[in-house]
Write a structure and sequence with these properties.
Length: 519
């Protein structure tokens, strides 16, 4: 296949960081640099520059040492770029602070920006026009599928773009566009704005069209194509660097050495583990206007299966009020409310339960109802092999029932062990629906279990809840998402007058009640 000559910008480390929290080993970095050095790749975008307060790793917070090292390992004709999220910038001085000590080894900066922020962007970089003359400023203009056919917005964008940017790249953020749409759009740009900027493209692979779209863009005057090895990148990933090289006969003769195959083998193992790439879930998200980042968070960081993730984002758009069905199936809980005995306890999924849960459960009143917040909570309890007389209840949201350890759980297990089960109707197995009578159903989709039980308590007018083993430890981005979700649930329930406190150590903003004093 013949492609017009243009530059390849490889952003494996920058875009692939969405799967590793921007943590790459030194050996992986070295293998990457050695591989790229042997290939006809013009630009390496090796990460982000940021001073945001987060838990992301070194390739999101590039330092001078890493940039200098990369520069020393590649060919002299290869450029080193970094990206900055425009939404993180406060003003021009903040940008200058970020670039201090880095411009000596950086060849270019790219800014990721939404069209609505073009005017603010122009104001921010205008004062830097003459300050960084050797540093190329480039723009990644996001959400192309939202405005590709909006001629008025396109005209407004070009009217307000700053003049001192070198390459303007169009980003199909949702991965929703098709080759015929790309061709038509670029023909329009070439007819009206051909001499203003160099143009680039960045396509996501939600529908498996990133490579095809890149080829079309390249043959329609795009001078720079974004790509990543094995397509590694946010959500469904990107056009594959190696496939762009393989299909471009102008670059085939420049490919040499065994480094590429070795590096691709390393990425193959990583892909099997992290599972990026086009899929029904990502294609569905793209074609229905859902955020790729939201879908990725649900699949990768909340570990939902794709069908559940689709249900979640569909339900989020509907913003349905939480409703419950078959409340009379909780007769024991309703009786407990009238007797007003001990405070119910919700057990979280923290590993600390497996170590310290036995001591707590042996010590609390046998009248205190125990609620297990999901599979991790229940699995930890099963590992304890502890018999307790407390009335037990199980909360199952999303596909949690598939994660319970016991391979063959009989109907008797649920009826014997639990006074009641609170489950989401769309996800509870039909075989169990027919045989169990102690189930209360909700209309929610993968709801936070604390929010679900809190809403149930408010519904039946139970006003107090203790939680235990909700440690709130944050070790990675997945933990951060779950922490924020749970803290938001706590805050919302407290505002609705549900008295929530914790009886074990926790990082959540809650009153601590010592169970050894208030037993």
């Amino acid at each position: 296949m013949l492609l017009n000559k243009c530059k390849i910008l490889d952003c494996t480390l920058r875009d692939g960081g969405y799967y590793t929290d921007w943590n790459f080993s030194s050996s992986f970095f070295d293998n990457y640099l050695t591989t790229v050095k042997s290939l006809p790749i013009s630009i390496l975008e090796i990460g982000y520059i940021s001073d945001a307060k987060d838990s992301l790793s070194s390739f999101y917070h590039l330092n001078n040492k890493t940039i200098k090292y990369a520069k020393s390992k590649v060919r002299k004709d290869q450029k080193i770029f970094a990206m900055i999220n425009f939404k993180e910038l406060r003003n021009s001085k903040h940008l200058q602070k970020l670039l201090v000590n880095k411009i000596k080894y950086l060849d270019g900066i790219r800014f990721a920006i939404a069209p609505k922020n073009i005017i603010d962007f122009r104001k921010l970089i205008f004062p830097l026009k003459n300050k960084y003359q050797k540093l190329s400023f480039n723009l990644n203009l996001m959400y192309l599928s939202d405005w590709i056919e909006n001629d008025n917005l396109v005209e407004k964008i070009f009217k307000n773009l700053p003049k001192n940017i070198e390459t303007l790249a169009f980003v199909d953020s949702f991965g929703a566009l098709e080759p015929n749409q790309i061709k038509k759009f670029l023909e329009k740009i070439n007819n009206k704005y051909s001499n203003l900027y160099n143009y680039g493209c960045h396509f996501h692979n939600n529908c498996g069209l990133a490579l095809a779209n890149s080829i079309v863009a390249k043959n329609n005057n795009c001078s720079t194509i974004d790509a990543t090895f094995s397509g590694m990148g946010r959500g469904a990933g990107n056009a594959e660097t190696e496939l762009i090289l393989a299909t471009d006969i102008t670059k085939q003769k420049q490919i040499k050495g065994f480094h590429l195959n070795n590096f691709l083998e390393e990425l193959k193992k990583l892909k099997n583990k992290l599972n990026w790439g086009s899929s029904f879930a990502y294609a569905f998200a793209a074609k229905n206007g859902y955020s790729q980042s939201e879908m990725m968070d649900l699949i990768q960081k909340r570990r939902l299966d794709p069908s559940t993730a689709i249900e979640v984002i569909s339900n989020n758009k509907k913003k349905n009020k939480i409703k419950f069905k078959n409340l009379n199936n909780l007769n024991n809980l309703l009786k407990f409310k009238k007797l007003n005995k001990k405070t119910p306890i919700l057990i979280g999924g923290a590993k600390s339960f497996a170590h310290h849960g036995g001591q707590l459960l042996k010590s609390i009143s046998k009248h205190s109802p125990i609620f297990f917040s999901g599979s991790s909570s229940l699995n930890n309890f099963l590992d304890l092999k502890l018999k307790i007389k407390n009335p037990k209840y199980l909360i199952l949201t999303g596909n949690e029932i598939k994660k319970i350890k016991q391979k063959k759980i009989s109907n008797k297990f649920y009826t014997r062990e639990f006074k009641g089960i609170i489950a989401e109707q769309n996800f509870f197995p039909i075989s169990l629906k027919k045989k169990l009578k102690n189930i209360v159903y909700s209309n929610t989709v993968a709801e936070n279990p604390l929010m679900l039980i809190g809403k149930l308590f408010l519904k039946i007018r139970i006003k107090k809840l203790h939680i235990a083993f909700f440690d709130g430890n944050i070790e990675n981005e997945k933990d951060k998402i779950l922490f924020n979700e749970t803290q938001n649930s706590i805050s919302a329930l407290l505002k609705q007058k549900l008295d929530i406190s914790t009886i074990t150590k926790s990082a959540f903003s809650l009153t601590y009640v010592n169970p050894w004093i208030n037993d």
